[in-house]
Amino acid sequence: MAKKLKNYIGGEWVESITSDYIPVHNPATCELLAECPDSTYEDVDRAVQAALEGFDEWRRTPVMNRAQYMYRFKTLLEDRFEDLSRTVVQENGKTLDEARGEVRRGIESVDFATGMPFLMRADGLEDVSSGIDEFTMRQPAGVFAAITPFNFPAMVPLWFLPTAITCGNTFILKPSPQTPISMDILFEILEELDLPEGVVNLVQGGKASSMAIMEHPGVKGVSFVGSTPVAKLVYETCTRHGKRVQAQGGAKNYIAVMPDANMEASVKNIMGAAYGCAGQRCLAAAVVVGVGEAYDKVRDEVAKQAQNLRVGYGLNETTQMGTVVSAAAKDRIENLIQRGVDEGAKVVLDGRNISVDGFKEGTFVGPTILGDVTPDMTVAKEEIFGPVLSLMKAENFDEAVELINNSRYGNAASIFTTNGGYARDFKYRVNAGNIGINIGVAAPSASFPFGGQKDSFFGDLHGQGTDSVEFYTERKIVIERWI
Amino acid sequence: MASLNTFGAILTYAINLEERLRDYYQAAGNATRAQGADKRRQTLERIRREYVVEITLEPIDGLDEANYVFAFDNPAAQRDIESTAARFYADVSPKINVRQAQRALERCGKEHHELAQA
Q1: B47-63 burial, b if ≥16 CB within 10 A, otherwise e?
Q2: Range A115-123 contact pairs with CB under 8 angstroms and sequence separation of 24 or more
Q3: ipTM of the complex
Q4: Do B54 and A441 touch (CB under 8 A)?
């Protein structure tokens, strides 16, 4: 029987007051995995009150002790690593390797938070005037919340929660209602830590609970990852309510392939970038720009390698690409492919109507390649968020850079080349927050901020790295003399 | 037989191989070799957990389970089993693009090679 999920508020598992539950299905098998409450303003308010009540005791807990909780958290996560990874596969549809990779990256964020005694230190200067010293204190700011997406149900919450609470804040997490089970497990793990009541809170739900978080006066700041229209809404709503906000939006990531690139090795990496997580990641390669004679070579090599990818159920270790998250996502992706065709793109590889033995109802979209794509086409401009790679041609390096910089998005861009001059010029000139040099998925590790520019990010301080410590703390300046 | 076409498929196959070797040697009353196999299994589980690099996961080709046949039902086949295990590790380690994981697989291969020669 499917589990009826609860919220975790003030150190207790509690039922939402709602009577509306959202079914959570395994996108490969269509099995009903859980029922997720569509929590209400009252549920969020209860979580905020618990977080506010827990704040004072928690902020007075020495940072060294707060960091110790993270060491124990890491140990427990390692113990539940396979369990958590398998749950990610079941609710999201990605492969087991991808799920393990995401949990690993999540744990890296916990590793980062263990360094908080060093990261939270501030600086000072004596004798700014005769007998007067001045220094900075860094303090936790209150109750923070994160609204996280379906595509990395374990990793993205861990970008935020460990850093926020180790800084001394209390926290509310609202995961995607499409993939809420990983966080149900994560909060089982957090419960084992014996944190003081109210330090971590889980509210399951959809739009109503998201709006409640954004509008609640008790919430100091909000971290968000999702699509651009929603990121914009989150940014506008939160700033209107006087909150800090970091809102990561959608993307259309370009990869330039130069004629001098090692074609076979480059395309192997591009396979992972384009089709990893079935293209459902904000750093997925969406457009490959073949420069000059590289275009034909990259098209042929991509087609050769993509048609050999094994599509199937993610829990099977030999599966190289899993499902997309839902039937609605599959429909949207397939409609966008058709739109590309209607607008003149050439189908090099068609992943529509793929059938996977034993999983007839699964929401599979096979690897798709659209060739001869031009900048005016919808598939060149809109985020597809599926396993669809568009191929564009540029006459030279400058034209490739121009194509990339004309995108409204600026999450990531990569170049494959053996020429250091091109590589340097690329990272210097391209307007994207994460740059890959011979790396298709330019995902920053936990100690670096997750970049993002233009319509891919709304806010000032990014997630991860020292940006996140800035985001989750207040700096107080103390000017002192003894008279 | 499924092909060994992902990082996880290779590591999981290796983990299962060491588990079966542990059971094989336990049944044969060779506690030292059983312990060795179990230690390798634990190492490989840790490697699978710690060295899965999300940004460089790439398809792997040219390897198939069918190429490695182990006569675990034959108590006298120890040398053949160890030789096949050594060959398996020699084949798969160059296909792994994370050096630390590659090194762990190479080390397993070396140990199996030595056991085959013993």
Answers
A1: bbbbbbbbbbbbbbeeb
A2: A115/A67, A116/A63, A116/A66, A116/A67, A116/A70, A116/A163, A116/A166, A116/A167, A116/A469, A117/A63, A117/A64, A117/A67, A119/A466, A119/A469, A120/A63, A120/A167, A120/A469, A120/A473, A122/A475
A3: 0.94
A4: yes
CATH placement of domain A253-437 = 3.40.309.10
Find the residue in B nearest to A155 (Cα).
Answer: B54
**For residue range A404-462, what is the model confidence (pLDDT) as tens digits?**
999 999 999 999 999 999 999 999 999 999 999 999 999 999 999 998 999 999 999 99
Residue type, A460: D
The residue written with tokens 């793929």 in the block is: A354
Q: Pick from A82, A98, A271: which is nearest to B59 by CB?
A: A271
Give how far the C-alpha of residue A388 lies from the chain's centroid of Cα atoms, to the nearest Å: 19
The structural domains of chain B, with segments of one domain joined by +, span: 7-51+60-117
Q: Which residues of B touch A97 (CB under 8 A)?
A: 6-8, 52, 57
pTM: 0.96
- Confidence tier at B2 by pLDDT (50, 70, 90): low
A282 is catalytic: yes
Shortest distance between the Cα of A98 and any Cα of chain B, in A, equals 6
Q: Give the pLDDT confidence of A16-50 residue by residue, as tens digits.
A: 999 999 999 999 999 999 999 999 999 999 999 99
Domain map (residue ranges) of chain A: 3-249+456-480, 253-437
Does the A3-249+456-480 domain belong in CATH 3.40.50.300? no
* Structure tokens, A177: 């209602």
Q: What is the pLDDT of residues A251-269, one digit of tens each?
A: 999 999 999 999 999 999 9
